[in-house]
Design goal:
Structural class: mainly alpha
Largest sheet: none
Number of helices: 2
Shape: rod-shaped
Helix content: over 70%
Strand content: under 5%
Number of strands: 0
Length: about 40
């Protein structure tokens, strides 16, 4: 495996991780604790 191919695989992996993270952040509602709910 040459250096360029290895770098492309790492870049693809990072892009996939960022995409999955953004999907979860935008779709799953945040559950606030007592201190943030005002209770």
């Amino acid at each position: 495996m040459n250096r360029r191919r290895k770098n492309l695989l790492i870049l693809a992996f990072v892009v996939i991780l960022v995409g999955v993270s953004l999907y979860h952040i935008l779709t799953i509602s945040t559950r606030l604790g007592l201190d943030l709910r005002g209770g």
